[in-house]
Amino acid sequence: MSNLDVRPAATACGGREDVSASPVRELLTARTVPLGESTEVRRLLPNLGRRMVGAWCFVDHYGPDDIAGEPGMQVPPHPHTGLQTVSWLHEGEVLHRDSLGSEQTVRPRELGLMTSGRAIAHSEESPRDHPRLLHGAQLWVALPDAHRHRDPAFEHHTGLPEVTGGNGLHATVILGELDGARSPGTTHTPLVGADLTLAAGTSAALPVDPDFEYAVLTMSGEAEVDGVRLPPDSMLYLGCGRTTLALRAEVNSSLMLLGGEPFEEHIVMWWNFIGRSHEDIAQAREDWKTGTRFGEVNGYDGARLSAPTLPPTPLKPRGRTR
């Protein structure tokens, strides 16, 4: 998953000083940004008021889009450092290729998990013969310093563990652990990501970890989380300190739950790179420009992305909010 902004803003985040130990209810609204030639996404993280939730640092929600007769998602080869990408679909298919030689079609409720480590390149596109609708989310997880220089890897998992809470609640565990069910996806910090389905008339309480900070975003429908109504294209930041999360829905709805231990390290995120300093980012950009370190993505019909120009002032890590 790429940030295709031609003038990307530097995002400095991390650290625990701005994390509330008590529950909060902070409603965030998405902003619309283009992704390639034919897709628009709603960016929920980083947001004007919130940069991270645990190690989750980037969230795009797209669709449902009718792409019959259209190319659909077309994201050329591009680089990543210091993060994991998470591909999650409700409808459609996305073909992933990377510089490790991976070629995998990701389908609804399957986990596509790419760990960039020190460096990887990949492309994402709707297959030539693709379903009519495309709907999903693309997310990034920041790697801690101890793992950000590790070897790159790609994982594809089907048959993910599920939690049935009764009263109309069903959860699929994408990453981490929820209510005793653990995803097979590799994680490097304590976190959780789950897809929540609420049938019309649901009133349920989901067990959560009081040491984690959480956020919930709307995928479809319109549910109520901890007493707050979540309209479409919104995310509710919840802070820490809960042992259960109250969920209600009058119509069929789908949410994503993201959480984790507050990410202690301060990081710099620019374009498709995560580092700890301006020098980290500048070196990654130079390596992509000169064709070193990231390898080649074979099979994509088109040129790779060029890196934007760095901002004129040095990039500096700061806190989690702005």
Automatic annotation (TrEMBL):
Q: Where's the Pirin N-terminal domain?
A: 41-141
The residue ranges of the Pirin C-terminal domain are 194-293
Q: Which residues form the signal peptide?
A: none
Per its UniProt record, what InterPro entries does this chain match?
Pirin, Pirin_C_dom, Pirin_N_dom, RmlC-like_jellyroll, RmlC_Cupin_sf
Q: Which domain of life is it from?
A: Bacteria
Please give one Pfam family short name.
Pirin_C
Q: Where is this region: Disordered?
A: 1-21, 299-322
Which family is this protein grouped under? Belongs to the pirin family.
Query: What's the name of the protein?
Result: Pirin family protein
